[in-house]
Amino acid sequence: MSGTWVAIDFETANAYRGSPCAVGLTAVQDGRITDRMYTLIRPPAAHRHFDPYNTLVHGIRAADVESAPGWAEVLQQILEFTAGRTLVAHNAAFDLGVLRDACTAEGSPWPTLRYACSLVVARKTWRLISYTLPEVARHVDAPLNEHHQAGADADAAAHIMLAAMQHHEATTLDQLLKGLGIVHGSVAPNEWSGSHSKGKYTGKPSEPLPGANPDADPNGALYGKTVCITGTLSRMKRAEAQAALANVGGTPVPKVSGKTDILVVATPDPRRFAIGSDKSDKQKTAERLLESGRDIEIIGEADFFERLNS
Predict the structure, then answer these.
(1) Which of 225, 258, 259, 220 is nearest to 242 (CA)?
(2) Of 35-39, 44-48, 79-83, which gets the smallest average pLDDT?
(3) What are phi and psi of 275, to 5 degrees?
(4) In contact, 9 and 24? CB cutoff 8 Å
(5) In the 8-state DSSP scheme, what is residue 290?
(6) Residues 116/157, Cβ–Cβ less than 8 Å
(7) Which DSSP string corresponds to 233-269?
């Protein structure tokens, strides 16, 4: 059965994972895509509100799902389409979390299935700066013209897994995972386990952040400042911003601590927040430090780039 499997991708109405509003599935058999399924979903009643951020990301509005099938009906469609085949998702922890949480929200048992994560596979296959779906898809020349359209994202995850199989000369999904030392994830009523690597991580190690340029202008607005960034910058990638910061004499750091001078809050992704929260952990830590009397600034992206270029 590992010669045939199904890639899956969910979009959600809000920050709660159990609010699916669309799903895409892409079936693969013997190295080629053979079938597809896509449907909008009316989220579970308790989580049916649409956050503006989510709508901005995927373009789906509450009005679009008014006549869409509910979760119970869609779950049955998913199970019939997959027919016991292994699921594949890019960052499967999110997509399988959507499935579990939607079932919980409607009081239905979790189905029994197993899955693999193309993100875990990509990290053990290629050395990349980023392992987001668009970046990995770009690396393997997979088409992805509509990121956050569930059908397009499922297709991209399928292409990534197929590219990894070709790279490692694996003829089946099971052979690929076994060769890389990756364990299948599984879901069953009242229990689940994630897809993860058993062995030592063999992907690209984290690059050390650049140190402050000692020859930078000491009169610069960010000279001598320790700066952390949270969220997604619109003008450049985070690594590029950290390099630019170091060039003007600032010190980029990955986390907020008592030694941090500035936290830059860029465009947030609520799907990364804890359930019920509207802020990143970095921002919450910075606010706690402020309340305790620590002299730390919280600034926006525009202010950061203005200081960077001053």
Answers:
(1) 225
(2) 44-48
(3) -55, 130
(4) yes
(5) H
(6) no
(7) -SSS-HHHHHHHHHHTT-EE-SS--TT--EEEE-B--
Given a contact cutoff of 8 angstroms between Cβ atoms, the answer to whether 152 and 145 are in contact is yes
Tokens of 29: 């058999």
Q: How many CA atoms lie within 13 A of 116 on its CB side?
A: 30
Q: What string of H, E and C letters represents the secondary structure of 262-298?
A: EEEECECCHHHCCCCCCCCHHHHHHHHHHHCCCCCEE
Is the model more confident about 277 or about 114?
114
Task: List residues bridging with 182 in a β-sheet.
Answer: 197
Residues 221, 208: Cα–Cα separation, whole Å:
24
C-alpha separations of 21 from 70, 102, 109 in Å: 9, 10, 20
With beta carbons less than 8 A apart as the criterion, state whether 29 and 4 touch.
yes
SS3 for 211?
A: coil
- List, for residues 177-190, the tens digit of each pLDDT value: 999 999 999 999 98
Model pTM? 0.64
Which SS3 state, helix, strand or coil, does residue 173 take? helix
